[in-house]
Design goal:
32% of the residues lie in helices and 27% in strands. By secondary structure, the protein is α+β, with helices and mostly antiparallel strands. It is elongated and about 75 Å long.
């Protein structure tokens, strides 16, 4: 199951790994079921969870806003959407993702236990009620089911993405630089960088600068878009990337955030248009994660970057350099 993305909606739905994404699953489910609906905590989690197909809805910043699961018993359950995102199509998107997965598995039918207040929602998706209503975790429910039409195999267009790689931890500047040296040559035509001060220990390295130079000169229409939170400091330190950008001014573009939340965004990251990313939760440290090709994560970062880019100003501090 691939990520379901709607740029206009401000969120996307992606497959979730129970072990890796457990904290996000827990945050959504315990907020909705345990805190809001007073479901006993011991009833919220069961032995089926590790065996289920889970999905997560995430906002543009990557925060979990909804979830659902498909059990080996061919039931959909644990449908939950955070309060601020209700009524915005998140639940429907989660359902479509789960139904697509069930069809891909060849299942002829799926069922669910709908809270009575949500029966109409499921009926709009084609589910039909059956049997008597019943109590589950102190809440009245109705059993519902939906017959599925198997998905026909459609030849997939060849992808130009490199082989997908699971994100790997990064613990040092050396490892972060190694990640950049793997992803930069694989970029198609656009690299996005969100940084406080151009990270001299990364983007000041000769090997990283050379990789960026080769990208800039070896790709038609190549662009490197850089959001710099502290451009004045970068100029004072005579960062070597500025010298490269001065020679390749049509490729390198710098902007500075103006909104407080953008100026004080704590993380730093790089994302390429072929799925590569390097993410550090604290821009002042090098610990983080990276992959040469993890398209879903790279899209999350791109969705975070692009709106900030649009509302940021051109770095007037660099005008004297012609960039």
């Amino acid at each position: 199951m691939r990520a379901t993305i709607d740029p206009e909606a401000g969120f996307h739905v992606e497959p979730a790994d129970y072990a890796t994404d457990f904290q996000d699953l827990r945050r959504v489910r315990e907020t909705v079921f345990v805190q809001e609906q007073n479901v006993p905590l011991e009833e919220e989690w069961d032995a089926l969870d590790p065996k289920c197909h889970h999905v997560l809805a995430r906002d543009a910043a990557g925060h979990a806003i909804g979830t659902g699961r498909l059990t080996p018993e061919r039931k959909i359950g644990r449908m939950a959407v955070m309060r601020d995102w209700r009524g915005k199509g998140v639940g429907e998107a989660i359902m479509h993702a789960l139904l697509d997965r069930a069809r891909a598995l060849g299942w002829p039918e799926v069922s669910l236990h709908a809270q009575v207040a949500a029966i109409g929602f499921y009926q709009k998706l084609g589910f039909e009620p059956y049997g008597e209503r019943f109590d589950e975790a102190g809440i009245e429910h109705q059993a519902m089911r939906l017959a599925l039409t198997p998905t026909e195999a459609v030849p997939r267009a060849p992808s130009d993405l490199p082989p997908a790689e699971p994100p790997q931890p990064v613990d040092s500047a050396e490892q972060a630089a190694a990640a950049l040296l793997r992803m930069i040559p694989l970029a198609r035509s656009l690299i996005r960088i969100y940084t406080r001060d151009l990270d001299p220990l990364l983007f000041g390295r000769p090997d990283v600068l050379d990789a960026l130079r080769q990208f800039a000169t070896g790709r038609r229409g190549a662009q490197v878009r850089v959001l710099v939170q502290d451009p004045a400091n970068v100029q004072l330190r005579h960062h070597p990337l500025l010298a490269l950008a001065q020679r390749l001014a049509s490729t390198f573009h710098f902007r500075a955030p103006v909104e407080p939340q953008d100026e004080h965004y704590p993380a730093a990251f790089v994302a390429t248009d072929r799925g590569g990313f390097l993410f550090r939760a604290l821009g002042s440290r090098f610990e983080g994660e990276a992959s040469a090709c993890a398209p879903a994560r790279a899209r999350q970062l791109t969705a975070l970057f692009d709106p900030v880019w649009e509302r940021s100003r051109v770095c007037s501090e660099f005008r004297a350099l012609g960039i």
